């Protein structure tokens, strides 16, 4: 009992009072040096670098310049979280698929329903007309459809279990030396 | 023969699948089945135990042909055909055995009923 009480006290010390004994976490800046992304970016050829996004904007001027580069208002512009998903200064745009866009709007590129010079979301290649229809209200929601599919399969399995054996009924397989076997020749 | 729906809705004493016959096997019959090859030869040829049935000699024939003709094993279609035919006839015998078991069970019932009617 005393041991359990001690354990409870330990957890209190660790979590409730938020006082850890050993500091085993390190900040992202400690783990990843500042010039890492620049270093990997310089690994590409100059002809490739001109198609890559720039480094994550740190100052207000860099932020505004990045927003202007992607044709967005500085308030609308929101780059990816540099700690969790570093994509340089590329904006984290909402995913709107081909089907979710207005078909009667005079698009510059009707095949992809985009305008000229428009900043595209990171996974744009998955949102084209022959790919995922993200953001569309379905007649049957995807979760419900999955449930229906699995339940149909489950009913099929139950039927397989309950149905009688419709094969030709046979006696045990005959092996020489295991009982007397004959050819149905009459006496 | 063993019709599954007949089994579901009938009260007759149908035998179970893959069971051994319970009546005297030689009752009314004479021709005994003989294996085409001895067990010692099968063991020497390393034939799997589940294939050591009455068609094992034909199985060995077709395996030998496969070894000889490999990789042009389609030349062994005769041997394979004979083996499959033998297995089919083996199954026919088993089906006949099932039917015999079923009819003998019915005969037992009929005899019992006749005895009861005579006693009453």
Description of the structure:
Chain A has 187 residues and is mostly helical. Chain A has a domain at 93-162. Chain A contains six helices and no strands. Chain A has helices at residues 2-16, 28-31, 36-41, 46-49, 60-69, 142-162. Chain A starts with a helix and ends in a 25-residue tail after the last helix. By secondary structure, chain B is mainly alpha-helical. Chain B has a domain at 37-119. Helix content of chain B is 57%, strand content 0%. Chain B is built from four helices and no strands. Chain B has helices at 4-9, 39-44, 56-69, 77-119. In chain B, helix 3 (56-69) runs antiparallel to helix 4. Chains A and B meet through loops of A and helix 1 and helix 4 of B.
Report the major sheet of chain A: none
Describe the oligomeric state of these chains in a short phrase.
heterodimer
User: What's the helical proportion of residues of chain A?
Assistant: 25-40%
Number of DSSP-assigned strands of chain A? 0
**Apparent shape of chain B:** elongated
Uncertain runs of chain A: none
Q: SSE order of chain A in H/E notation?
A: HHHHHH
Question: In terms of structural class, how would the helical and strand content of chain B be classed?
Answer: mainly alpha
The Cα radius of gyration of chain A reads 33 Å
Radius of gyration of chain B: 21 Å
Output the structural class of chain A: mainly alpha
Question: What is the tally of helical segments of chain A?
Answer: 6
Termini separation of chain B (Å)? 34 Å
Give start-end ranges of low-pLDDT stretches of chain B.
none
Straight-line distance between termini of chain A: 87 Å
**Counted beta strands of chain B:** 0
Keywords (chain A): Membrane, Transmembrane, Transmembrane helix
InterPro entries (chain A): NDUFB8 (IPR008699)
Pfam families (chain A): NDUF_B8 (PF05821)
Protein name (chain A): NADH dehydrogenase [ubiquinone] 1 beta subcomplex subunit 8, mitochondrial
């Amino acid at each position: 009992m005393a041991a359990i009480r001690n354990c409870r006290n330990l957890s209190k010390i660790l979590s409730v009072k938020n006082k850890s004994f050993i500091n085993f976490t390190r900040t992202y800046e400690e783990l990843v040096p500042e010039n890492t992304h620049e270093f990997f970016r310089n690994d590409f050829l100059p002809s490739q670098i001109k198609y890559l996004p720039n480094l994550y904007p740190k100052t207000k001027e860099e932020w505004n310049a990045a927003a202007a580069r992607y044709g967005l208002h500085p308030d609308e512009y929101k780059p990816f979280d540099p700690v969790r998903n570093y994509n340089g200064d590329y904006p984290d745009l909402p995913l709107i698929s081909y089907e979710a866009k207005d078909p009667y709007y005079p698009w510059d590129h009707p095949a992809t329903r985009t305008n000229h010079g428009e900043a595209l979301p990171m996974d744009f290649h998955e949102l084209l007309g022959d790919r995922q229809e993200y953001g569309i209200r379905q007649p049957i929601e995807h979760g419900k459809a999955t449930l229906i599919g699995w339940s149909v399969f489950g009913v099929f399995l139950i039927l397989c279990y309950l149905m009688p054996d419709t094969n030709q009924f046979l006696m045990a397989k005959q092996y020489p030396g295991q009982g007397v076997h004959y050819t149905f020749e009459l006496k | 023969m063993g019709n599954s729906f007949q089994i579901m809705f009938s009260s007759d004493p149908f035998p179970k699948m893959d069971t051994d016959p319970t009546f005297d096997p030689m009752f009314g019959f004479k021709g005994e089945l003989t294996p085409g090859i001895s067990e010692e030869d099968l063991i020497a040829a390393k034939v799997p135990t589940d294939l050591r049935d009455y068609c094992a000699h034909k199985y060995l024939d077709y395996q030998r042909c496969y070894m000889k003709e490999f990789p042009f094993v389609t030349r062994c279609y005769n041997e394979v055909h004979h083996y499959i035919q033998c297995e089919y006839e083996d199954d026919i015998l088993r089906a006949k055995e099932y039917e015999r078991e079923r009819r003998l069970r019915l005969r037992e019932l009929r005899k019992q009923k006749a005895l009861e009617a005579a006693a009453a």
